[in-house]
Amino acid sequence: MKKWGKRGGSAQNRMKIGKWLGAAVACLSALALGPGNAQAANSGQKTIAILPPGMTSPFYVQIVQGARKIAQEYGYKVIVEAPPAESDFNTQVSMMENLVSEHVSAIAVCPMDDKAIGTAILQANKAHIPVFIFNGLASTGAGNVTEYIGYNQREAAHKLAQFTVQLLHGRGNIMILDGIPSYYNTERVGGYKEIIKKYPNIHIVEEQQADWLRSEGLSITMQALQAHPNIQLVYGASDEMDIGAAIAASQMHKHIYTIGIDGNPVTLQDIQSGLVTATIGTFPYEMGETVVEQMHKYFMGQSIPKFLETPTVLVTKSNLQAYESGKLWTTPKASHEEVEM
Hints:
The structure is a single chain. The protein is of the alpha/beta class. It has 13 helices and 13 strands. Strand 3, helix 6 and strand 4 form a beta-alpha-beta unit. The N terminus is likely disordered.
């Protein structure tokens, strides 16, 4: 039996900049659901399914890589499926329903729409297939979820807001880039504003939806900096959006702070180079490992908590090496539901 620890090794070694998209494509094409996978699910080998909301973000590529590593150690077969876009809620539901019909041993899903996924969860319950939700601690409200595994989104946003106050010395103009409307966006943006509103001399002069995409973050920030040249900091509710903002500012020869949430390897590269200011490291690779570890405990008949909270840490150039090495990873802890506010 494996124990909790600093798993996964160096983030730099796990994934190099420019290769994450290729890894995503390779992962999906090599592990796509097919007759061979269905046969494995019906044999003695455990077949587990990982269902992200999309693979356009390096965050989910890292989760899949971590999950595959531990699954290989336990001899589990892995199926990975994801919609072409994170806004394609219906396709994610259909994919999960198909996985249920294939009688996989367990399903781990990260629903972008926690209400839409409810029908698929109910079908899994009827088929006696355990369902694990990853990257979130908010109840889906429908069906029975075996375990929720993820970090507290609102508390992570609090850390970035407090860092914003430090950077601006309690005074300045900021812009917020929202993701796709969802629990994730509500908690990350709501949590950030919750702290910022306590500082009347910090003004949110612009807020726009960038759909978790780097390209949208770039184009929106360019327009915003033209309309509000006094913007000093951009907060992206995901790393990809804030990287887009950083590129926009660089191309316009403007010095601004850019901060986000995820802690992806590509973001770490940008922090090292000075392009991006900071991120909330959410340990996506280790989260993927944790998901499969918890599935294994369930298969072995061990008790697992309903909510398991994974750690987060503010990552800047000063502690970048420690984060990359895994030294900042701490043992996930039994927690409680994160109620959307």
